[in-house]
Design brief:
With about 260 residues, this protein is an alpha/beta fold. The protein is built from 8 helices and 11 strands. Helix 5 runs parallel beside helix 6 and helix 7 packs across helix 8.
């Protein structure tokens, strides 16, 4: 059976104290609390710097057995002119100790600058650099691109052949790609508004709950922007993160969506 996991980006954010976290909740126990209200968290700190293996192992110990972390890859891997030359940075990122998360390691998110344009040869070479496993731990990869030039069937085909998911990013600033390309789905919902107590209206949350169930069942939900033919229908683990937008509302939005699915 496929699994739908819903969460937020990170767990350390001052405005969440007293809104999401109970009043006077110890900061050192914020991951413990967050991981019991949500089913996944996207680690964003790994985009900016490296961490020690013991840190990843410590995070894994704090969260429940059925909890999963997505890990955002280092910017040094993706923010480069020639992606095909990123092999050393990719190996350094993967080898820093993320596998210490063990079965709690979810997808790795490879996010690209909005100015990065699609180059089929270079991007194809980058995808070939992504390891299928490390130290016996299977790795799953998702790519988030934010330039119009990626909205072509050739990009979708490259990702499908590599078994890499294209992130569906609902954003007011960048165009989205709805095509399913991996054996899992990765979505980032970035349009929460502070005026809504749950970040999104009830109607919008109902919509995303329907989309989530459709993704998990193997479908290609209606109303999303596609550039290629639909993927074969099969059940897929689905990861949805409430991130950016009105960040203070992210936990409430995630909890409201969890209640619906």
């Amino acid at each position: 059976m496929s699994t739908i996991r819903i969460g937020i980006g990170g767990w350390t954010y001052e405005p969440w104290r007293g809104t999401f976290f109970p009043e006077k909740w110890p900061q050192k126990r914020e991951l413990e609390y967050a991981s019991r209200q949500l089913s996944a968290i996207e680690i964003n700190g790994t985009y900016y710097s490296g961490f020690k293996p013991a840190t990843f192992a410590g995070w894994a110990e704090v969260v429940p057995d059925d909890f999963v972390f997505a890990v955002k890859a280092s910017r040094f891997c993706t923010n480069r002119k020639v992606l095909a030359e990123g092999g050393e940075s990719i190996a350094r990122f993967v080898g820093q100790g993320i596998v210490e998360l063990g079965p709690k390691l979810g997808p790795i998110l490879w996010q690209f600058m909005a100015t990065k344009k699609f180059d089929a040869n270079d991007f194809g070479a980058f995808l070939k650099l992504l390891p299928a496993s490390h130290e016996g731990v299977a790795l799953r990869h998702a790519v988030q691109v934010r330039h119009d030039s990626f909205h072509v069937p050739e990009f979708v085909d490259l990702c499908r052949k590599a078994g890499v998911a294209i992130v569906y990013a609902e954003s007011a600033d960048y165009p989205a790609i709805g095509d399913v390309t991996g054996d899992f789905v990765y979505a980032r919902l970035e349009n929460a508004v502070e005026a809504e107590p749950q970040g999104y209206s009830s109607e919008a949350l109902d919509h995303w709950a329907t989309v989530a169930r459709d993704w998990a069942a193997g479908g290609s939900p209606e109303g999303l922007p596609y550039v290629a033919d639909p993927a074969p229908k099969k059940q897929r683990d689905t990861f949805i993160f409430m991130i950016n937008g009105a960040k203070v509302r992210a936990p409430a939005a995630a909890q409201a969506l969890i209640a619906r699915v």
